[in-house]
């Protein structure tokens, strides 16, 4: 709709230019926004204010001329001038109703991708396997998962890549510990965090152990079979911990999506050679570096991307370059989205630039760092356990479910325990995920159980409950959500407002997919639920007098229910039929 309004405005501008009202050569970026207040129409444009000066007219005067020059369009019932010179467009409700009917008849709710379909790599989760997943990995995992789902829904081909940290010097220490006491170590591995701490203590306390650890790193890099066996065993156990967390979180990651740092080991010498061949390498104190003039330190000297250390070892950046080349040349991706902590922003800016200069990625490929802020505790300080340790993700999820269980049991003491558990899972895990997804990706936020489990405000419990309210209408009726005949007819103000919101679903999803910002979908669903509430309050559904009105309202409710459900699923939440 916004596109077609932009197009109408463009036609009016061309006409006014031909008529000599506007000077030649104006190419403004025409802005069309959804209005907040429906009494001002459905869409607004500030074009008359933008062009008033070059046209030498008052904005309202130009607005009048624009309205006169706008071609007629059956989808627009009225255009009015408001305030200092805004153009307000009112949608034709019959056309709007028709659009909603088309959405109801479509499994994808009428949603299409606005641009060409693409092959998209999503780099997500990517924990370091030496340690247990902690809360810092939550954001990458669930934001990446939600954006992946949205892109898939829009028709893109999504390839998830879990770029786990399964290589590096810490592994020497862990292997030395595993070697020292295989039997005990195997059982201790059920708690990786503890295993890591125990190995670290040995490393710090015993010089002999530390020497052995360093020796094992070298042997591992030389692909010593026994070392590789221990390393593989360790990684299997660590990855199975991750997989449990993924299942618990209901994210679409499988073992097949794992392509860790070690997978690129064989490529690393070739990456350095390719950079040398392109004359991009400089040796600095024995290390191989690519200097990028546009990135400078505080003294104004160019910053290097180090790809090989003086001792010959490769770095995080080298592996990322190899991964980019693989994603471009082998996976043939059009886009690669990196869901990684904002603190790695400079690393990615620089690595992307080196990859481009070296020709590791094809020209059209978009590389995008989808950075995110830090999750803090309720006190606004970095999230820690009471004794200052890192919070294991699994403990956090356990607590969320337990709190949700107590909450739901308090509200519905009559539910049997199995159903309570199921609801508690959807509400508890959903609350943790939604609280994160609903914040702007790049901002820091405070983790707060009370807030995220509240039934009021922009929370998972509120939205899950809103969906059950729609579902209950159909349960009372004794019909499925897609079993209502009749036609949508938009009469009441609340019906119009709800309908206009429903028609924006596709636009919102396109934005989420393009910018990698699920909070837009959360905000949309929250607005939608609010508009459904006022519709539900003001427009009786089952008790409507006329049969046609009843059917129309039921169909509006059905589309609302399906949109809420689809939206929640795209965020990776599990909608419930009752709670
Ligand atoms: N393992 C890294 C960490 O925990 C994140 C890796 C992100 N992905 C990448 N391609 N660099 O910080």
UniProtKB/TrEMBL annotation:
Keywords: Aminoacyl-tRNA synthetase, ATP-binding, Cytoplasm, Ligase, Nucleotide-binding, Protein biosynthesis. Residues 463-579 form the DALR anticodon binding domain. Gene3D superfamilies: Arginyl tRNA synthetase N-terminal domain (3.30.1360.70), HUPs (3.40.50.620), Isoleucyl-tRNA Synthetase, Domain 1 (1.10.730.10). A motif ('HIGH' region) lies at residues 127-137. GO terms for molecular function: arginine-tRNA ligase activity. The keyword Ligase applies. Its EC number is 6.1.1.19. Its main location: cytoplasm. Transmembrane segments: none annotated. It catalyses: tRNA(Arg) + L-arginine + ATP = L-arginyl-tRNA(Arg) + AMP + diphosphate. SUPFAM superfamilies: Anticodon-binding domain of a subclass of class I aminoacyl-tRNA synthetases, Arginyl-tRNA synthetase (ArgRS), N-terminal 'additional' domain, Nucleotidylyl transferase. InterPro entries: aa-tRNA-synth_I_CS, Arg-tRNA-ligase, Arg-tRNA-synth_N, Arg-tRNA-synth_N_sf, ArgRS_core, DALR_anticod-bd, Rossmann-like_a/b/a_fold, tRNAsynth_Ia_anticodon-bd. It is found in: Cytoplasm. Residues 3-91 form the Arginyl tRNA synthetase N-terminal domain. It comes from the Bacteria. Monomer. Belongs to the class-I aminoacyl-tRNA synthetase family. This is Arginine--tRNA ligase. The gene is argS.
């Amino acid at each position: 709709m916004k596109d077609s309004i932009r197009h109408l405005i463009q036609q009016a501008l061309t006409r006014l230019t031909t008529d000599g009202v506007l000077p030649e050569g104006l190419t403004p970026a025409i802005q069309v926004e959804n209005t907040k207040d429906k009494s001002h129409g459905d869409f607004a444009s500030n074009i008359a204010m933008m062009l008033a000066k070059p046209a030498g007219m008052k904005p309202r005067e130009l607005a009048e001329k624009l309205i006169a020059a706008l071609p007629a369009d059956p989808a627009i019932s009225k255009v009015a001038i408001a305030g200092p010179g805004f153009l307000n467009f009112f949608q034709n409700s019959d056309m709007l109703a028709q659009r909603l009917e088309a959405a109801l008849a479509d499994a994808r709710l009428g949603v299409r991708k606005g641009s060409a379909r693409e092959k998209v790599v999503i780099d997500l989760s990517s924990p370091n396997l030496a340690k247990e997943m902690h809360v810092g990995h939550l954001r990458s995992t669930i934001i990446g998962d939600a954006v992946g789902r949205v892109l898939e829904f829009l028709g893109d081909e999504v390839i998830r890549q879990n770029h786990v940290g399964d290589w590096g010097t810490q592994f020497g220490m862990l292997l030395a510990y595993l070697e020292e006491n295989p039997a005990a170590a195997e059982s201790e591995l059920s708690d990786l965090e503890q295993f890591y701490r125990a190995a670290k203590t040995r490393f710090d306390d015993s010089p002999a152990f530390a020497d052995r650890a360093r020796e094992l790193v070298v042997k591992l890099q030389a692909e010593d079979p026994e070392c590789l066996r221990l390393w593989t065993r360790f990684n299997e156990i660590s990855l199975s911990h991750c997989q449990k967390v993924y299942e618990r979180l209901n994210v679409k990651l499988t073992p097949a999506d794992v392509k860790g740092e070690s997978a690129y080991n064989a490529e690393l010498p070739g990456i350095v050679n390719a950079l040398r061949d392109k004359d991009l390498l400089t040796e600095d104190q024995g290390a191989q570096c690519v200097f990028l003039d546009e990135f400078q330190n505080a003294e104004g000297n160019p910053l290097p991307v180090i790809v090989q250390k003086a001792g010959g070892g490769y770095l995080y950046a080298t592996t990322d370059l190899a991964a980019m080349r693989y994603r471009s040349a082998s996976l043939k991706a059009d886009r690669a989205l990196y869901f990684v902590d904002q603190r790695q922003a400079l690393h990615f800016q620089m690595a992307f630039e080196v990859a481009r200069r070296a020709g590791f990625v094809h020209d059209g490929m978009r590389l995008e760092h989808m950075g995110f802020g830090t999750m803090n505790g309720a006190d606004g300080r970095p999230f820690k356990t009471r004794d200052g340790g890192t919070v294991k993700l699994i403990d956090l999820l356990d607590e969320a479910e337990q709190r949700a269980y107590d909450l739901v049991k308090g509200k519905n003491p009559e539910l049997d325990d199995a159903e309570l558990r199921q609801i508690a899972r959807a509400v508890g895990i959903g609350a943790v995920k939604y609280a994160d997804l609903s914040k702007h990706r790049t901002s820091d936020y405070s983790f707060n159980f009370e807030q995220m489990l509240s039934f009021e405000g922009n929370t998972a419990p509120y939205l899950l409950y809103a969906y059950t309210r729609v579902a209950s209408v159909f349960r009372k009726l004794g019909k499925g959500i897609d079993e209502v005949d009749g036609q949508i007819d938009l009469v009441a103000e609340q019906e119009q407002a709800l309908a206009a919101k429903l028609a924006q679903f596709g636009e919102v999803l396109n934005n989420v997919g393009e910018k990698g910002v699920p909070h837009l979908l959360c905000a949309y669903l929250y607005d939608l639920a609010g508009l459904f509430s006022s519709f539900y309050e003001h427009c009786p559904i089952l008790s409507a007098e006329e049969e046609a009105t009843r059917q129309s309202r039921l169909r509006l409710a059905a589309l609302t229910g399906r949109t809420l459900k689809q939206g929640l699923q795209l965020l990776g939440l599990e909608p419930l039929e009752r709670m």
